[in-house]
Amino acid sequence: MHKNRVVLKNVNIYQQGLADILIDEGRIIHISKEPGYEVGDAVCHDLKSHLMVPPYVESHIHLDYTYTAFHPSAINRTGTLFEGIARWSEIKKSDDVQTVKERAKRALKHQILSGIQYVRTHVDITDPDLTGLKALLELKEEYRDLVEIQIVAFPQEGLYCYPKAEELLEEALRMGADAIGAIPHFEYTEELGRASLKKVVELAVKYDRMIDVHCDETDDEHSHFLEQLAYLAHVNGIGARTTASHASAMASYNNAYTFKLFKLLRRAGIRFAVCPAENLYLQGRQDSYPKRRGITRVKELLEAGLNVSFAQDSISDPWYPLGNGNLMNILDIGLHACQLMSLKEIENALDLITVHGAKTMNLDAYGIKEGRMADFIILDAGTPFDAVQSRADVLCSVRHGKLLFKKEKPVCQTGHELLV
């Protein structure tokens, strides 16, 4: 038998149905729905109708912040975004490249073992030494065979609040950051917030980079930076390369304004990265009752044909003490909080942590198709509904045709052992 030629039989491909797949030299050569498909010299494995899904995509996280929740300076007594930033500004003073790398490695290992093969991490560049950026650039190269990492150069303490942040941001792009970020609602004034967005778009065009802005992560119904971001993306023709993360204030906008805003959002075609667990925790802190959920209008955005992905955001840091990198947990929280619970919405829910995340990250060669690299995960479920209902475990993960991990003697809910 040819060890580099593998046939996976009886696999239920997400949104494609039951099929057999021929993999050769790490690439998907053929997908057959004809019974009795055989390749004589190939190693054959029967997947027993288990669900195959393209790899999970973590479209918004801060790997440089992970596992800092127990730092002496990390206690966030108000549970707010703004105090979290203040706490982080103290923590990072004692960081060095190796410390950040060790924390991020720990998080990456959890992510990889939960089926993630693509990660977009925001990295704080409001640091004169660019410590976090240096650490993540090294990890990006070291882990390239296991996971694809995109780095967003993110001015956590504000582009115009932090001394020389503008210069640091441009230096981060020269060093190799894949995308550029901003936090306009944190700037001292609305004018400075708007100026930060103009600068981000200017630099993105200059350096040919993607954009991912922490946009309106507040309950303030007057925070309308999303409108400006969408307009700038639209007029510069870069909507598909622009992401608005969080957009929490939209949950507080009045319906008349939101109706008008959606026209611009559709024309711009920008992406949205939503972090349901973290924003449920952070937002509504100034409310008594009724208390706002703090999550943007996910259902309405999806119905308008806009791309929305769900993301973890934090793993045990000053903004969120929990988190373990498992996107199935995030999906479950988001479906409930956003009331995406019709049978059709549940059937398509995995899109929010797979294909939608791939669009957010602009991954051109993502998905289970003939001619593409054999990148996929096998879930402990037979159907998408079963996977979502049970928060199905990942039985194995394959990248470029190579097995990243396999659970020992896994047994699916039907009692069948997985034979890979």
From TrEMBL:
Keywords: Hydrolase, Metal-binding. The gene is codA. The keyword Methyltransferase does not apply. Residues 46-404 form the Amidohydrolase domain. It comes from Enterocloster aldenensis. It holds the Pfam family Amidohydro_3. The keyword Hydrolase applies. GO terms for biological process: cytosine catabolic process. PANTHER family: CYTOSINE DEAMINASE. This is Cytosine deaminase. GO terms for molecular function: cytosine deaminase activity; isoguanine deaminase activity; metal ion binding.
